[in-house]
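Researcher: Let's continue the batch. This sequence belongs to Spermatosis associated 13, and it's 526 residues. Same format as the previous ones, please.
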Amino acid sequence: GTLEEAGNEEDLSFDELPDPNLSLQPGVELSTLDEWIRSGHAVYAEALWDHVTMEEEELAFKAGDVIRVLEASDRDWWWGVVADQEGWFPSSFVRVRNVLSSDTCHRSELKDQMRANVVKEIMSTERIYMKHLKDICEGYIRQCRKHTAMFTPQQLNTIFSNIEDIYKFHRKFLKDLEKKYNKSEPHLSEIGSCFLLQGEGFSIYSEYCNNHPRATAELHRLMKLGRYRHFFEACRLLQQMIDISLAGFLLTPVQKICKYPLQLGELLKYTPEEHRDFKSVSDALDAMKKVARLINERKRRLESIDTIAHWQVTILHWEGEDVLGRSSELIHSGELNCVLRPGKTQQRTAFLFDHQLVFCKKDLLRRDLLHYRGRLDMDHMELRDLLDGRDSDLGACLKHAFKLQDSATGEACILSCRKPEEKQRWLEALREERQRVIEDQEIGMEISEHQRKQAILNARKSKRGNIKICVGCAVPLAHQPLHPLHQRHVTVPTSLPQQRVFSLAEPRRKPFYLWHSLAHYARLRK
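Model: Same format as before. Here are the structure tokens for Spermatosis associated 13:
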């Protein structure tokens, strides 16, 4: 799943969060809270979720609202006020943020106190996370390397990936945070700059997150053997780690990179614009969102290049560099007619990747096979929509057509579709391809040369009669979704064998009755 999905899983990073049943800060008992209210202290809670009223005396609020708690004698339902409205609300929907004496209940002080709480939470979770990284590196990896008979270097690399690099990075990051942390007045801390200073370093999470599914699979395989289960448990006890499985510990980096945008978003909410840390926190939030987006995109692209590599090895008479030399994603595909001159067209199956448009031709005898017939460099092409009617330059009557013209040489390629909706989808796809290239440049999206070569090598090794690829051209465009671009992939069921997949694109032929009768008669004689 994506990083957003991972962030919603059960929290295994052991943050000091409040009891979800009480929604109180750690160490705050329900009786104590009610005593504070009775003694005249002002108790404020922050809404974690929207609350829609069901009864007349219930209090409605939205996530992020600050509620003053007026009564907390009951465990589940409290009485409070927000925006001059009073009523009952479920305690599980809020988190107590402040307990202030009556003479200090000012809005600005309340916001300062809330910012201080967020800063403390960031510092606390970072220290706990550092402890987990240290335990993994010193408690597990160090012991595993001593037992060469049980673990090969390749196995350790698969299970732990680059977590030692992450540990090294976070030691420096935590030192920067400690320097900027104001212990006496936490709300004045200027920790936003730390995220900006180490912004590039967070990209090391990409390798770890991409490898995590393989690590989980390998660890699951080893855990089926008793000697490995006992070994990992012994490592945990020797390091005096909490009672969490190794799989749980290895999930914490994936969850941690998800949490930074959430924590920074909450910090920004309580940072006034005049605060010295406001711009740094705002920029840090954008930077960490970009990191999370880049990690998600790299994970998806690595899956995509394996698909493209398997597709390419099925194409006959391929010429020139591999499609992965410049591209990493299939954006759209389908049938097009290349208009050469009046009355002369060539039917082609076109595959639009980022940076290039590849043309193939179906085999005359075996329609499930494709022959390579050339490509266009989309980085130098200008798209022009053509109106239906006679084209003066070509001297031909065009219908549902568009032109791709090389901005450097002036050479043009005119392509036409069978239906207007097909043309519209191609125009959208071609614009999407340009936008995708720009986005990749902005976020620094790159696939290494080693990863590209490895994908091609694996595809050639596993070349068989069945292919598991994205070949949107194999499905008649009339059966494709109206907006396939929103899906990021144009796909067909991967379980279908190659002959079956491409046969979907072929119209049903009327049976040749004489041949059918002879074949039927031959079976009866046999």
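Researcher: Any comment?
Model: Residues 107-146 form the longest helix (40 residues).
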